[in-house]
Amino acid sequence: MASTNLLDVFKERGFFKQCTDEEAVRDLFSEGSVSAYIGFDPTARSLHAGSLVPIMALMHVQRAGHRAIAVVGGGTGLIGDPSGKTEQRQLLTRELLRSNFEAIRAQLGKFLELNGSTAVAVDNAEWLEGLNYIEFLRDIGRHFSVNRMLSFEAYKIRMEKGLSFLEFNYQLLQAYDFLVLSQKYGCQLQMGGDDQWGNIVAGTDLIRRVEAKEAYGLTFPLLQTASGAKMGKTAKGAIWLDEEMCTPYDYYQYWINTDDRDVGRFLGLFTFLPMDEVARLAALEGAELRESKRILAFEATKICHGEEAASQAQAGAEAAFSGGGDLENMPTTILTPAQLEQGLRATEIFVETGLSPSKGQAAKLFKGGGGRVGDRVLRDHNELILLKDFVDGFVVLSAGKKRRHRLVLDK
């Protein structure tokens, strides 16, 4: 049976990297409701799969009866977090950050019940934009040691290429976030990726100095796939959580194409399946492991897009790859017979349908025999898609073994 203490759940499922005081945090979760926060960058109107570890962690917080606080950094976003970056981020306008905040808050509402009591999403611009700089330096800045700040890995990396004074202030502001959340929401715990360790420790120190009380930090492992790729990145780009930027079908396909070596780890992190079931599925080998990936893809898609969308994505994938399922659920582009009278260049269609990131890549795919129109293998960048390729009003395009798209003739 899985542990009921949330710290042990985090350890068991792969969310734990390090903690400021492990036993104190375990006791905290045992004693009653805990308020825990994680920050999210509003640099785009959608979060992507790389944000799923913190999102899932907050879901576990709420499901365990504690309070989850998501801070979307409309204030700190005006500066940009140097953590994990070798170059300064592009600065965004207040208007764009506010728009992104609203979109991300709505998106987080699909994962968390933002009822104000067990989960809330806030914008740190609320308390950062009105700060008086002189007062901030006197009240907050005096608690920070420059020598200690420079000892943290995030600043060490940036020092190699130049760390601006703007970015240097980021740790003070994030620590101040934790202080405000402690005062306003009784927040006792900040969580985040392990690249945030320095910022998190700075916050716990600030609360201890200003409020004379304890606060704690916990970090997650920085996630890469077994192949060394960054989580949530593909040849086509980021796997966005917004269905308009990444369809549920493409989202499902991302998970079902998980590297065999990652299946067990991802089932623990990105589903709510009991850990004994995760262990059973992770132990499968060979052809049976395909069923584990199918369950992972369905569960992950259900959490992000809902059960109906997950079922449709699964049906579309089975139609495309297994000869079963429902072709209507495959990604589809409708063409008119008139568009095909002279034929359409295959490289252009592969780009337009998202099967290839560029015409050059499509041509390379064809040269290697990895592109097909129905059963016809494409060999050359000049090849055309013709009316005669369509059978019963449609044809399926294939890019390698893992990507499919259906073309349908408009009647």
Written account of the structure:
This protein is α/β, with parallel strands linked by helices and 411 residues long. It is 43% helix and 15% strand. It has 18 helices and 15 strands. The strands form four sheets. Strands 1-6-5-2-3-4 form a six-stranded mixed sheet, with helices on both faces. A five-stranded mixed sheet has the order 9-15-14-11-12. The longest helix is centred in the C-terminal third of the chain and has 17 residues, at 289-305. It is elongated.
CATH top level label of the largest domain: Alpha Beta
Assess the beta-strand content as a share of residues: 5-15%
Low-confidence stretches: none
Return the average pLDDT rounded to an integer. 88
Shape: elongated
What's the number of domains? 3
List keywords for this structure.
single chain, 411 residues, alpha/beta, Rossmann fold, Tyrosyl-Transfer RNA Synthetase, Structural Genomics Hypothetical 15.5 Kd Protein In mrcA-pckA Intergenic Region, Chain A
Task: Write the topology of this structure.
Layout lengths: L5 H8 L4 E2 L2 H10 L3 E6 L11 H12 L3 E6 L21 H15 L10 E5 L1 H4 L4 H7 L6 H6 L1 H7 L5 H4 L1 H16 L3 E5 L3 H15 L4 E5 L12 E2 L2 E2 L9 H9 L6 H8 L4 H8 L6 H17 L1 H15 L10 E4 L8 E2 H7 L6 H9 L3 E3 L2 E3 L5 E2 L8 E6 L3 E7 L2
Parallel strand pairs: 2-3, 2-5, 3-4, 5-6, 9-15
Antiparallel strand pairs: 1-6, 7-8, 10-13, 11-12, 11-14, 14-15
A few lines on this structure:
The chain contains 18 helices and 15 strands.
